[in-house]
Specification:
Number of helices: 2
Strand content: 25-35%
Radius of gyration: 39 Å
Oligomer: single chain
Helix content: 25-40%
Number of domains: 1
Low-confidence stretches: 21-28, 54-65
Mean pLDDT: 79
Order of helices and strands: HHEEEEEEEEEE
Distance between the termini: 146 Å
Number of strands: 10
Length: 252
C-alpha cells in the first residue's frame, strides 16, 4: 500500500514537472503581441530612413544629370554662335556705301533686334557668314544668311527653343525673315536669350542695324550673348562676349 502511494506521488510530481516544462517552453520560445508590435515599429522606422536617404541620393543624381545636360547644351549653342560670328562677312568701304531711299537692303547687313515668342521677349540676330552648314548631301560653300531666333513650341505645355536659320546666297534681299519648321533646333527650355552690342568706343546697345543712320552704318565691334536655361528645379545662366574679327567703321 505504501508502495502504491509512493508510485502515485512520483507520477503526480512527474506530471507537474512536464506541465511546467511545457508552460515554460510556450512562455519563453515565442513572442508576445507587444513584442511583435515593437519589432514592426522599429523595422518601419529603419526602412523609412533607408528609403528616404535613397530617394534623396536619386533626386540629387537626377539634378546633377539635368544640370550637366543643360550645361552641355548651352556650351554647344554658344560655341555655334561664336563660330558663325568669327566667320562673319561684312562689305567694307568703298564697296559699301550708305543706301539711298529706294536702294535695296544690304544683303550682308547686320541686324540685332527684339522679338516676341508667345508672351515673352527675346533677342533675334541676323548677319552674313561664310560658315554655312549644308543640310544636304552636297557640300555647298559660300556666304549664308544666319538668323538666331527663339520660338515657342509644344502643346499644352509650351516651351521656348532657340533655332538657327541658314540660307545660302543668293537669297531674296528684300524678304522678311520667316521661321521654318526645318530650321535646326540648338537649345531647349529657354528662359532668356538676350544680346548686348558694343561699338568701337565700348558703348552698349540693346539693338543694332547696320543700315541705320543713327549708328552711322557701322557694325558692332563685339557682342555679349546671355542664355538662361531652366531645368526641373532650377535655372542656369550662361554668357559669353564675342569680339568680331572684322567690323565696319562709322560713316562720318
Amino acid at each position: 500500500m505504501n508502495r502504491m502511494n509512493r508510485v502515485k506521488r512520483v507520477n503526480r510530481i512527474n506530471r507537474k514537472l512536464w506541465a511546467n516544462m511545457i508552460f515554460s517552453a510556450g512562455k519563453y520560445n515565442g513572442f508576445t503581441l507587444i513584442e511583435i508590435l515593437i519589432a514592426v515599429f522599429i523595422f518601419s522606422v529603419v526602412m523609412s530612413t533607408i528609403f528616404g536617404t535613397f530617394n534623396a541620393v536619386i533626386s540629387r543624381t537626377d539634378a546633377i544629370k539635368n544640370g550637366m545636360g543643360g550645361y552641355e547644351m548651352a556650351r554647344t549653342c554658344l560655341n555655334r554662335i561664336a563660330l558663325d560670328l568669327n566667320a562673319i562677312y561684312i562689305d567694307q568701304k568703298p564697296l559699301y556705301h550708305p543706301p539711298d531711299f529706294d536702294d535695296p537692303p544690304d544683303p550682308y547687313r547686320f541686324v540685332g533686334k527684339e522679338t516676341f515668342a508667345g508672351n515673352k521677349n527675346f533677342s533675334q540676330l541676323r548677319f552674313a557668314s561664310t560658315d554655312h552648314l549644308s543640310m544636304t548631301r552636297n557640300a555647298e560653300n559660300g556666304i549664308a544668311e544666319i538668323v538666331y531666333y527663339v520660338k515657342e513650341q509644344g502643346y499644352p505645355e509650351s516651351e521656348f527653343v532657340l533655332k538657327r536659320s541658314d540660307t545660302l546666297y543668293p537669297y531674296d534681299e528684300d524678304y522678311e525673315f520667316e521661321e521654318k519648321d526645318s530650321d535646326p533646333l540648338l537649345c531647349e527650355d529657354i528662359e532668356e536669350f538676350s544680346i548686348i552690342y558694343f561699338d568701337k568706343e565700348g558703348n552698349e546697345y540693346e539693338k543694332w542695324d547696320s543700315e541705320s543712320d543713327f549708328l552711322k552704318y557701322a557694325t558692332p565691334r563685339a557682342l555679349k550673348v546671355k542664355l538662361k536655361i531652366k531645368s526641373i528645379d532650377s535655372s542656369y545662366t550662361f554668357d559669353t562676349k564675342i569680339a568680331l574679327p572684322v567690323y565696319r567703321q562709322k560713316f562720318e
